[in-house]
UniProtKB/TrEMBL annotation:
Keywords for this protein: Disulfide bond, Electron transport, Redox-active center, Transport
Chain ranges of the Thioredoxin domain: 1-108
Taxonomic lineage from the root: Bacteria, Bacillati, Chloroflexota, Anaerolineae, Anaerolineales
Gene Ontology molecular function: protein-disulfide reductase activity
Protein name: Thioredoxin
Disulfide bonds listed in the record: 32-35
Matches recorded under SUPFAM superfamilies: Thioredoxin-like
Keyword Transferase applies: no
Length: 109
């Protein structure tokens, strides 16, 4: 079971842009092999960050307007939002150590 519950355009603004915590959003598609490969790596990151982050998944086929809005040109793409703004971003499969390297600076305080 993924740590990233599905999110739709209808609740994106409320759950991501208006969130009090940072939010990791995985933009993916059911047919995407690299997306499936990335999921356990993201789950490890979500578990490591614990209650310091909220996590969601957006299916780009079901939510094309969100994909356009955030210029998702390939999947998987993961964006970290803080205070309603995109801060960190990765495209394609990345192993857990690389995800940690990219996203952990946003949580170091």
């Amino acid at each position: 079971m993924s740590e990233f519950p599905p999110l739709s355009e209808a609740d994106f603004d409320e759950k991501v842009l208006n969130a009090s915590l940072p939010v990791l959003v995985e933009f993916s598609a059911v047919w995407c092999g690299p997306c499936r490969r990335l999921e356990p790596e993201l789950d490890k990151l979500a578990k490591m960050l614990g209650n310091r982050v909220q996590c969601y998944k957006v299916d780009v086929d079901d939510n094309p307007d969100l994909a356009f809005r955030y210029q998702i040109l390939s999947v998987p793409t993961v964006i970290l939002f803080q205070n309603g703004e995109p801060r960190g971003r990765i495209n394609g499969y990345q192993p857990y150590p690389r995800l940690l390297e990219i996203f952990s600076p946003y949580f170091d305080s």
